[in-house]
Amino acid sequence: MVKINGAKLDIAGKTLAEYLATTNYDVKRIAVERNGYIVPKAMYSETVLQDGDSVEVVSFVGGG
Fold first, then answer.
1. Which phi and psi angles does 4 have, rounded to 5°?
2. Within a 13 Å sphere around the CA of 2, how many CA atoms are in the beta-carbon half?
3. Per-residue pLDDT at 37 exceeds 70
4. What angle do CA 40, 38, 8 make, to 5 degrees?
5. Are 58 and 38 in contact (CB under 8 A)?
6. Global pTM value
7. Integer angstrom CA distances of residue 12 from 24, 33, 43, 61
8. How confident is the model at residue 29 (pLDDT cuts 50, 70, 90)?
9. Residue 64 has what pLDDT?
10. Alpha carbon of 59 to those of 10, 23, 27, 29: distances in Å?
11. Is 53 in contact with 2 (CB distance < 8 Å)?
């Protein structure tokens, strides 16, 4: 199980890019932290989610 923003999901073995493709996140407007470290956007397709990982996805919101 992988914990993403507090929810446990059975997605171990998928890449971060594969997971994000199933969501409504705008990849250009998010930051992803995995186990306390920021994942560079260039690494999304190479980052394989492991059982026990903790992931936080944060969306940037414009305003003023």
1. -120, 115
2. 19
3. yes
4. 110
5. no
6. 0.90
7. 20, 16, 17, 29
8. very high
9. 64
10. 22, 12, 9, 6
11. yes
Do residues 42 and 15 make contact, with C-beta atoms less than 8 angstroms apart?
no
**What DSSP assignment string belongs to 1-64?**
-EEETTEEES-TTSBHHHHHHTS---GGGEEEEETTEEPPGGGTTT-B--TT-EEEEEE-----
Average pLDDT score over residue span 21-26: 94
Domain 2-59 = CATH 3.90.230.10: no
| pLDDT confidence of residue 28 | 93
Pair type for strands 54-59 and 37-38: unpaired
Q: Which one, of 46, 16, 18, lies nearest residue 34 by Cα?
A: 16
Token look-up 């250009």 returns 28
Task: Report residue 63 as tokens.
Answer: 């305003």
